[in-house]
Amino acid sequence: MILIYITCREKSEARRISEHLLKKRLIACANIFPIESMYWWKDKINEEREFVVIAKTLEEKFDEIRGEIKKVHSYEVPCILKIEVEADEGFLEWVEGEVEDARR
Length: 104
Fold this sequence. Notes:
The protein has one domain: Alpha-Beta Plaits (2-Layer Sandwich). Helix content is 33%, strand content 38%. It contains three helices and four strands.
């Protein structure tokens, strides 16, 4: 199982991306959090309020999810991070049941 960490400019964008991935059955769940970010961009340090999406899914869905995010994200270079995790057996079974199995 993996978590996908995605930063977004606005809460509405985080919700739109989450819903897009859920409707395509690429993720089982998404959590959205407000964050404060500091980062280098075009030779200067920026400070912004953003929203992060943490999406729960299966390893084999990462490439497809990354492609879908790039299609709909407003950032020129979106932050899309894959984090490998170990999950409780029951939770993993739930994720597998909710995410369309790539082997079908």
